[in-house]
Design goal:
This protein has about 325 residues and is of the alpha+beta class. It is built from 13 helices and six strands. α5 packs antiparallel against α6, α6 crosses α10 and α7 packs across α9.
Length: about 325
C-alpha cells in the first residue's frame, strides 16, 4: 500500500489518507522470474486535484545484486470506469458506453518492477558506456529516482494497459508486450541529454509513419501467433515490407531482434501458464507450438535459468 500512496502523494502534491482510497479494480502478477506489476483503479474523490505523473526508480544494492531492480510508477487521472457488471450494463453491452450512467471518474495507479534478468535483453552488446547501458546492466553505482515526462507513446501504452478488452491468456500476452514498450519509452523519456541523439532513428525509412506502422503491425502479428511460430519471410509478406527493413526496423524500434522478442514473449507466457494457470509442462509446450517437451524445456531454461518444473517449486 505504501508504494501506491507514494505515487498518489506525488500526483496530488499532498499526503493521501488510506481511508480515502476506494478500490474499484485491481490486476497484479507476482509470478517468480517475471516482471511484477500491479494495476489499481481507484474512485476519484471530488476534492482530489490529481495530475498525471510518472516516476522511474533505480534501486541499486552493491552487496545484494539479486535485489537490484528498476521500477516504473504512474498515476493517471481522468479515465472513466463502468462499475456495473458487463452483462448488467445494457448501454455498454450495446456499444453505447458514452450513455452509461454507471461510469465514474477514476485515478489509476500502475507499478512495474523489472529485475536484472528482464533487462539483460536490452543491454547493447557493444562496449557502450552510455547511461542507458549502465542503468540496464546495473553498472550505475548509486540509486536514484526521476520524474518522467509522459510523452504521447507512453500515454498510449498506459491507455492500452488500462482499457483493453483482453482476458485470461490473451490479456497476459498483451500486458507483457505493452510493459516492455512502456519500459523502452520511459527510458527514452528519462535520458534527456544523458544520451543525446539516441532517440533519433538511424534507419531513415522509419521516419515514415507508414513504415513504422508496418513494424508495429508485425509485432502485433507475432503476439497473435504466440503458439503458432511464423517465419520472418511470411511476416514480411503479411506487413508488406522488405525482410531486411523489417529486421532492422524491428531492432531499432523495440530494442531487440524479432526472434529474441518472440522467444521472450513465449517464455513469459509459459511462466504464466505454468505458475498462474497450473498447466502441465506437456500442455504448455503444445500450446506454444513446440514439437517436443525437451525442446521447450531447453528454451525455457535458456530464458529463465530454470527448468519448467523448477518454477513450480519457487
Amino acid at each position: 500500500m505504501q508504494q501506491t500512496l507514494d505515487i498518489l502523494d506525488v500526483a496530488q502534491k499532498r499526503p493521501i489518507m488510506v481511508e480515502d482510497l476506494s478500490l474499484l479494480q485491481e490486476r497484479e502478477r507476482l509470478t517468480p522470474g517475471s516482471v511484477r506489476y500491479s494495476i489499481k483503479r481507484y474512485r476519484k474523490l471530488s476534492q482530489w486535484e490529481t495530475e498525471d505523473v510518472g516516476m522511474l526508480a533505480y534501486n541499486y544494492k552493491k552487496n545484494e545484486p539479486a535485489e537490484n531492480s528498476l521500477e516504473l510508477k504512474f498515476c493517471i487521472t481522468g479515465n472513466m470506469y463502468c462499475n456495473g457488471k458487463s452483462y448488467e450494463c445494457g448501454e455498454c453491452r450495446s456499444g453505447m458506453s458514452k450513455n452509461c450512467v454507471a461510469k465514474e471518474e477514476t485515478v489509476d495507479v500502475l507499478h512495474f518492477t523489472f529485475l536484472t534478468e528482464h533487462l539483460q535483453q536490452f543491454v547493447k552488446t557493444t562496449r557502450s558506456a552510455s547511461f542507458t547501458n549502465r542503468v540496464l546492466s546495473f553498472k550505475h553505482s548509486s540509486s536514484f529516482s526521476k520524474m518522467l515526462p509522459l510523452c504521447s507513446r507512453t500515454r498510449m501504452s498506459l491507455e492500452s494497459l488500462l482499457n483493453n478488452a483482453y482476458v485470461e491468456s490473451l490479456e497476459n500476452i498483451y500486458i507483457n508486450a505493452q510493459t516492455q514498450m512502456l519500459l523502452l519509452y520511459s527510458l527514452e523519456c528519462m535520458l534527456g541529454d544523458n544520451d543525446k541523439g539516441e532517440e533519433a532513428f538511424t534507419c531513415k525509412f522509419l521516419t515514415n509513419d507508414v513504415d513504422r506502422d508496418k513494424i508495429l503491425k508485425a509485432r502485433d502479428i507475432l503476439l497473435q501467433n504466440i503458439g503458432d511460430p511464423i517465419t520472418i519471410k511470411n511476416l514480411s509478406r503479411r506487413v508488406a515490407i522488405n525482410e531486411c527493413y523489417l529486421k532492422k526496423g524491428f531492432k531499432e524500434i523495440f530494442g531487440t531482434t524479432i526472434f529474441d522478442f518472440y522467444q521472450s514473449q513465449r517464455m513469459e507466457h509459459a511462466k504464466y501458464l505454468l505458475y498462474e494457470k497450473g498447466l502441465s509442462v506437456t500442455d504448455v509446450s503444445l500450446m506454444l507450438g513446440y514439437s517436443s517437451i525437451s525442446h521447450f524445456s531447453t528454451a525455457f531454461k535458456k530464458h529463465t535459468g530454470l527448468k519448467p518444473c523448477e518454477l513450480l517449486l519457487r
